[in-house]
Design goal:
Strand order of the largest sheet: 4-6-7-9-8
Structural class: alpha+beta
Radius of gyration: 32 Å
Distance between the termini: 66 Å
Largest sheet: 5 strands, mixed
């Protein structure tokens, strides 16, 4: 089927941004033209003529709507890339020398519109394609730098910080004897990567200070040149943010004020930072709170007047929402409206950091309202988005806050969160090493020897700080793992004997005196001390002992309440399918690279299996961890992702057993044979499948399912498929018949078996 330029143009003009705004969370980069592989495209007008035709029509119709024009031109380039760059060779466009300059200029625009609309992956793909073609060598130095800067920003926004830094440093090399303003811009962009994305504030400060030093040497105090003024404002504003992050609020205020004066007029974003700094510096609400709120509203409205600034509304709206909530002077719903507006705009432009911050802020507000379940859900949402997009600093912040404040996290998930923090810090340590490589390779001609030495010192200091934090996290994880393993054995042991330490503790708690009784005894001793001075010393000793006793009682009662709550949760009935899914999702969260390797197949019969939680989640995730840890011993990560499959099957065997089959499929039989032997050693002889293993894994799985539940755990092998088969008696479960695994509505008929 033939399709011409006119038909493509009709598709484009029928997409209206104002109509899309009526939908929630529309993402502009996801809007796609109907470009089918079996279409025959009309190339008779040629690349340049087709583009010029569409471009001029769009400028004519939409010159007053920046966002609509940006979307339309993104769609135009989407069409051109599909027809000319993907389905044919780019070098074929270079036949006519007179058109080459036009082609290069149009391609430069393509990178700008892709990046603006949030189509970062498209921008990166186009760069990687262009870089491999002859056309790359036809761009001049400045054009190459423009493409590299746009692509570096796209790499940064998708979490590929190595390539982002590599391109920024390469641009500085290109610019050794070039435009000093451009060098300032590049130093600021490098500083932004280190400050916002890699938690290396020392390095960020170094590069921003270097930019500021150049501005003071080369520039003017009150520059008339728009470009120079722009980067002077960004530099001053960024210095203010760094000092704010370091807690030096007075210095931060000075730089924000300088940025505001240099910007002139409305003052730019420094005004927002000045307002926000007051509420960060002091939790007490300012007397001029209403004036500050009015200022933030005005900033947001000014952005609305300039559609090219619209994406900036996202973060400002979220910050405004948080202040509205904390003030307690306005309706709380107004705060949530602002946060939702910020999130909607962030989704529109694929602004991942702002999307994450919107969910993170909402979690904080839920915590303040003591809505802990909702807090947990929003925190997990923020964390998963951060993990998928490699936003290391934000993800680390969220996990840290969850571990410190969230009361609804079970111990299994807690362990996985701590493991994830280990992975994050290891990545940050690697980036410290990578910086040394980049500086050695790219910076020897840019900085003097003493400044290079300073960079090395900063990197090493950041490295030591991050590495020290990593070691602390490892220690915490080791303690948590040990607690879980001890709890595992203790719980099984006490349950077999017919009682639990939790019930004993709870009964003992009820026999202890309450605070009122102890306080009355302390008051009595104080009266005796006053009435009988000769008894003063004895009274003091008794009072001290009573106060100690009161603290001990408080601790016992708190501990009893917590452990009883945990015991109650373990006694509840849970969907076995849901527990397995939770275990899989917990593992995928810590190792997202292996997501496509795991398959879960559950029973096709119209039933639901309910079991008591009793550390089943721990067992399930331990089984998955063992499988992939062993795979990493014998295969590279690339091979695992390409060839390795891990399958969990769940079914009912006759009327007697619930069956779980957990199978790893290796691509070579000798690896499968070795894996089978290793699993057998783990089950029968408590030997770890890994050199650094805990020796708890398969042994405790056998203890739970076989010794305690009366089932069977065996190693199985079918040619290249190796794993374990777990058989648990149906007498230890509830079977729900009728409506399968539906969570809501009618659940069908119950068939209740004996409880554990």
């Amino acid at each position: 089927m033939k399709i011409g330029v006119d038909e493509i143009f009709d598709q484009i003009i029928n997409i209206c941004v104002d109509d899309l705004d009526k939908e929630d969370n529309v993402v502009l980069k996801n809007i796609r033209l109907d470009l089918k592989a079996n279409y025959e495209y009309d190339r008779s007008m040629g690349y340049v003529a087709a583009y010029q035709y569409l471009y001029e029509c769009l400028l004519l119709d939409y010159s007053d709507n920046y966002r609509q024009k940006a979307l339309d031109l993104f769609l135009v380039h989407q069409y051109l890339c599909y027809v000319y760059f993907e389905t044919g060779s780019m070098d074929d466009l270079l036949c006519n020398d007179s058109d080459i300059k036009k082609i290069l200029n149009l391609m430069l625009q393509c990178f700008s519109y892709y990046r603006y609309i949030g189509a970062y992956e498209d921008c990166i793909n186009l760069y990687e394609l262009v870089y491999e073609q002859k056309i790359w060598y036809l761009f001049d130095k400045n054009q190459k730098m423009k493409i590299m800067k746009e692509t570096a920003k796209s790499y940064r926004n998708v979490g590929d910080f190595r390539n982002s830094l590599r391109l920024y440093f390469a641009c500085i090399e290109f610019n050794l004897r070039g435009d000093w303003i451009q060098k300032v811009e590049l130093l600021l962009k490098i500083g932004k990567v280190y400050r916002n994305y890699l938690m290396q504030l020392g390095l960020a400060k170094f590069f921003v200070e270097e930019a500021y030093k150049i501005l003071k040497e080369k520039g003017k105090e009150n520059p008339s040149d728009d470009k120079e003024r722009k980067y002077r404002v960004i530099c001053l504003d960024t210095m203010g943010q760094i000092y704010r992050d370091e807690g030096e609020f007075d210095k931060a205020k000075d730089f924000f004020e300088l940025a505001r004066k240099t910007y002139g007029g409305t003052g730019g974003r420094a005004v927002a930072h000045q307002v926000l700094l007051k509420y960060r510096e002091n939790d007490d609400f300012q007397k001029n709170y209403k004036e500050d709120i009015s200022t933030l509203f005005e900033i947001i409205n000014n952005m609305r007047q300039k559609p090219e600034d619209e994406r900036g509304i996202g973060i400002r709206s979220i910050q405004l929402g948080k202040i509205l909530f904390d003030s307690k002077e306005d309706n709380i719903e107004k705060a949530y409206v602002r946060i939702y507006e910020g999130r909607t705009i962030a989704y529109r432009y694929n602004d991942i950091k702002t999307i994450i911050r919107s969910y993170k802020t909402e979690a904080e507000l839920m915590n303040k309202q003591r809505k802990f379940e909702e807090e947990r859900n929003f925190s997990f949402m923020a964390m998963k988005i951060a993990s998928r997009n490699n936003q290391l600093v934000l993800e680390n912040e969220i996990i840290k806050e969850m571990l410190e404040t969230c009361d609804t996290i079970d111990s299994v998930t807690k362990i996985e969160l701590i493991k994830r923090r280990k992975i994050i810090y290891r990545q940050l340590v690697d980036f410290s090493k990578y910086t040394i490589e980049l500086v050695q390779k790219n910076m020897s001609n840019v900085f003097e020897t003493n400044r290079l030495t300073e960079i090395y010192e900063i990197v090493l200091k950041d490295f030591e700080q991050i590495f020290d934090e990593l070691n602390k996290i490892v220690e915490i994880l080791d303690v948590e793992l040990d607690n879980i393993n001890q709890k595992y054995v203790a719980y099984l042991d006490t349950e077999i004997k017919g009682f639990t330490y939790k019930s004993i503790l709870h009964r003992f708690k009820n026999d202890l005196p309450n605070d009122e009784t102890v306080n009355s005894l302390i008051n009595l001793c104080n009266k005796i001390k006053l009435a009988q001075p000769e008894m003063s010393n004895d009274s003091k000793k008794i009072i001290k002992q009573l106060e100690t006793f009161r603290n001990i009682i408080a601790h016992i009662k708190t501990s009893a309440s917590e452990t009883l709550k945990e015991a109650k949760e373990e006694k509840e009935w849970f969907s076995l399918q849901k527990l397995i899914n939770n275990g899989i999702q917990n593992y995928i969260y810590t190792q997202p690279k292996y997501e496509k390797c795991i398959k879960f197949h559950y029973t096709k019969r119209d039933i639901q299996i309910l079991v008591q939680r009793t550390l089943l989640e721990t067992a399930i995730i331990e089984i998955i961890n063992n499988a992939f840890d062993y795979a990493e011993l014998v295969m590279s990560e690339e091979v695992i992702r390409a060839s390795f499959t891990y399958t969990i099957n769940m079914r009912i065997e006759g009327e007697h057993s619930i069956i779980l089959e957990c199978l790893s499929e290796y691509f070579e039989k000798h690896i499968a044979d070795a894996a089978f032997l290793s699993i057998n050693n783990g089950i029968k002889f408590r030997k770890s499948t890994k050199k650094s293993g805990s020796m708890y894994g398969f042994y405790l799985i056998k203890m739970l399912f076989a010794d305690f539940m009366g089932g069977r755990v065996e190693a199985i092998q079918d040619i290249n498929k190796v794993g374990i088969i777990i058989k648990v008696p149906i007498s230890l479960a509830k079977i729900r018949i009728g409506e399968g695994d539906k969570e809501n509505g009618s659940m069908g008929i119950y068939s209740t078996k004996r409880k554990i």
